[in-house]
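Thanks for the sequence, V.! I ran Dihydroanticapsin 7-dehydrogenase right away. Repeating your input here for the record:
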Amino acid sequence: MSQSPKVVVVTGASQGIGFETAKAFRALGYNVVATSRNIKQTDDSNLVAVAGDIADPATARRVIETAVSRFGRVDTLINNAGIFVAKPFTQYTAEDYAAITGINLGGFFHIAQLAIAEMEKHESGHVLSVTTTLVDHAIDGVPSVLASLTKGGLAAATRSLAIEYAKRGIRANAVSPGIIKSPMHAPESHGALGALHPMGRMGEMSDIVNAILYLDSAPFVTGEILHVDGGQIAGH
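Predicted structure:
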């Protein structure tokens, strides 16, 4: 009897890294539950779209309930949803703070709790978050305090989860990108953004997707923050 396909939940999946990640898992035969605010359902019966704000706990409940009712389990959670607002620290507003912490932290907390509760039933699973190398290597001219506050929290939480659940068969890892070519960066900015990396160029979305796929397929790797950043973490 063949083993049932694994089930992966991908947040922030309507465009960019999340979209490419969901597509890559489907190509590998995974059942996928994809979520974002404006995501549309496709004709693929093995890729289910759940629209909603990931900062809202009700969205997290709908996503995990959909995964379990449709496919029976949750094997992997890709916590990709996030927002980045580059402002001088003193210019952040209360609305900025609420939006960034709501999505980057709340969006992780609510859905990861529910996903891990399902993983515990099967004593296996993987929680993978997408952070940023700015957490470890701030760049002059790229104000990023709220990114560091929130995504840095995810990096720390990843290590904590890895230890807490190591003996229960559940892994936790993160991918820490540099600046990646995606819809959020206008093509005319690519040259300047690429120059911020020691390798002299921006990363491709495929670089991040391949890192995610590697970590998901590496059963002896947990608590790892994998930097995919053109050398930024090493210095300048």
